[in-house]
Write a structure and sequence with these properties.
two-stranded parallel sheet; 14 helices; Rossmann fold; about 55% helix; about 290 residues; mainly alpha; Histone, subunit A
Amino acid sequence: MALAFAETLGDIEIVTVDSMQVYRGLDVGTASPSAAERDRVTHHLVDVADPAEDWSVARFQAAARAAVADVASRGRRALLVGGTGLYVRAVVDDLRFPGQDLAVRAELEARAATPEGLAALHAELCERDPVAAARTEPGNVRRIVRALEVMAITGEPFSASGAGLDAYPEPVFPVRLVGIWCPATVLDDRIARRVDGMYADGLVDEARRAAAAGWSRTAAQAIGYREALAVAAGECTEAEARATTVVRTRQFARRQIRWFRRDPRVTWLGGPEPDALLPALLECCR
């Protein structure tokens, strides 16, 4: 739909808002646009980092805003496409991301890895920043560690960074936000077919190559690769891996929907045939 939208209007370049399509070599598992698709429409922020790199939301924010400015400087318009909710907010909203202290982070991660360590860190977060704690699942190691790391760096509550995700202010540049939905049965079928296609296109070999070359904690979170590596290691059957990947993807899709449904600025278009929504999308964005 994004390609058809861009080709119909003619002055559009796509900025991919996806936390995993930034990585080179993770094409099958992330559904990265193909070379032929990128020939049809110019894409930004696809294949810009090695899997061994940690690609942070702050780094993405800077790169995406630079891409949007570059597109505008040439008299064209940027179409932001993707479903990584925090990345979308980071581009269009005034979210601020404090720096990093890798030594502090390593110490916190070591504490989290000990028996009862994660529970103790979560309790510390509850005491020092109840607002951030209420937004964080007790088992979310990465977010708990990050919150405590930021507080160690800044001396301020983690929840004080920017306006926060619970606020939906005017975007930092003119933008229209449109969400595409389809019935759960249609979505579930599309996900199942997508996973089948991933395995048919060589997901197991791609996962094996990426793991052998080394990948960051961020890249390793891409859904489907853990299961594919289990197949490569003989730890489960391909059928079991496919089923697990389908379940994880459906769960992720539900979280995406909940995330964007909270944003009152999003105009929703949908129906049983989402691919037929192009006319409505064009009308919405004229």
